[in-house]
Amino acid sequence: MPSGSVHNLINTGAFLLIAGSTAYAKQQGYVDPSIPEILAFTGTFFVGTFMMSPDLDLAEQNVSSKKAWGIFGFIWVPYGKMFSHRGLSHTWIVGPLTRLVYLTILLAALYYLAILILPDLKSRIRFENVPRTLEFWQPYILGYYVSQWLHLIADGISPDMRALSRTFKKKKR
Ligand SMILES: [Zn+2]
């Protein structure tokens, strides 16, 4: 299986291909992404590639995605301990979701800790301004998931069917 830097290289190359074909499709009038949509996709694609790769399931070691968090890399150690390498973390739909949920729980804990210490903070952070339409979040979700799927393809893992059949086989035994 490819190392972290090889994964990063594959994803960056794939991004250039996606960018090139999107530019072509736009020129041909097939798609018309807005600048905010392009930035959203690009942002989550590279965060997904460099900082939230499936190999964080090895975060108890020194993987590339953990290093990208700098001094905050340690926050992924429990995730690495929780998930076996190339297990649930390396599935197509649930795998990327596990990392999002994990990060959300950590951020929520941090938020509640922060407002416990600084009660004023609560009135300053306005969650009601966060967009709630799927249409808004689509390019963000797509960028993240495409980055994860490219990793899985490079690892030679096909869509979740394999994980499903593995679970099924285990149950039968
Ligand atoms: Zn991997």
UniProtKB/TrEMBL annotation:
<dbReference type="InterPro" id="IPR019250">
    <property type="entry name" value="DUF2227_metal-bd"/>
</dbReference>
<feature type="transmembrane region" description="Helical">
    <location>
        <begin position="100"/>
        <end position="118"/>
    </location>
</feature>
<keyword id="KW-0378">Hydrolase</keyword>
<dbReference type="Pfam" id="PF09988">
    <property type="entry name" value="DUF2227"/>
</dbReference>
<protein>
    <submittedName>
        <fullName>Hydrolase</fullName>
    </submittedName>
</protein>
<dbReference type="GO" id="GO:0016787">
    <property type="term" value="F:hydrolase activity"/>
</dbReference>
<keyword id="KW-0812">Transmembrane</keyword>
<keyword id="KW-1133">Transmembrane helix</keyword>
<keyword id="KW-0472">Membrane</keyword>
